[in-house]
TrEMBL record:
Residues 162-257 are annotated as: Disordered. This is Uncharacterized protein. Residues 174-213, 220-237, 244-257 have a biased composition (Acidic residues). It comes from the Archaea.
Length: 257
């Protein structure tokens, strides 16, 4: 006895055929078809139809027969997801976590060993814990427990309530795209930017000193000019005195005659 989940509304066909293709034998059979209404999240059997959930959320669901429920949750590298659940029904479900590389993959009906990152049966003593190795959308799957010795039939049901908690990497930790040395580089740039300002201040001081020197030189030149003027005045006085002496000599000579 088996079954499947209708991915969409429409007409489906059931085909019955012999297993060994022995057309010389015949057998009688009785076929019973039943339908079971699943929870509101169905169909969410595969990653591409997964139900999006958030951290620290509690999900309630129902499995029936070969039904699987798949939930999508975004994790950052370094974050730890912890899943605990309780169930009530005729069989024991199990949980498995699938990585981002399975987003477009048609996974096995139960536990896919190629893509699964962690796996635990649901129960009071079981808890799934995993630390993300990469940033991306991970997929949490709830399946009939493949480790159980009992074959799950289509008319069997198991309800579950599952708590999902995420902890770990804080928001101030650097991500893969960030360089931890960026902050130090920024400090170096600030120090570099401060250095030209100090140079500008030195330049302004030098310019001020040059202006002071120029003013001093102009003062010295003015003093030299005044000295030269004073010297010329003294020379003029000497010339005038010499002229007076000559006139005195002439007057003396005239009297003697």
């Amino acid at each position: 006895m088996g079954g499947d989940v209708a991915e969409q509304s429409g007409t489906y066909y059931v085909r019955i055929q012999p297993v060994d293709n022995d057309f010389n034998e015949s057998t009688d059979y009785e076929l019973t078809v039943e339908t079971t209404e699943l929870d509101e999240n169905d169909p969410n059997e595969q990653p591409n139809t997964a139900t999006q959930i958030e951290a620290d959320e509690t999900i309630a669901g129902v499995l029936s027969g070969s039904d699987r429920d798949t939930y999508a949750i975004d994790l950052e590298k370094g974050e730890t997801i912890t899943v605990s659940a309780e169930y009530d029904g005729s069989f024991t479900p199990s949980t498995s976590l699938v990585g981002p590389n399975a987003s477009d993959v048609e996974l096995d009906s139960y536990y896919d060993t190629e893509y699964s990152l962690a796996h635990e049966p649901i129960g009071r003593d079981h808890e799934l814990t995993y630390t993300a190795m990469t940033t991306g959308t991970h997929f949490l799957r709830v399946n009939p427990n493949i480790e159980s010795s009992t074959i799950v039939t289509f008319d069997e049901k198991a309800s579950y309530e599952m708590s999902v908690n995420v902890s770990g990497q804080s928001s101030d930790q650097p991500t893969d795209d960030e360089d931890p040395d960026d902050s130090e580089s920024g400090d170096d740039n600030e120090e570099t930017n401060e250095t030209p300002n100090e140079t500008d201040a030195d330049t302004d001081t030098d310019d001020s000193n040059e202006e002071s020197d120029n003013t001093s030189n102009e003062s010295d030149q003015s003093d030299d000019t005044e000295d030269n003027t004073s010297g010329e005045s003294e020379q003029s006085d000497d010339t005038s005195n010499q002229s007076d002496d000559a006139e005195d000599d002439t007057s003396s000579d005239s009297s003697d005659c």
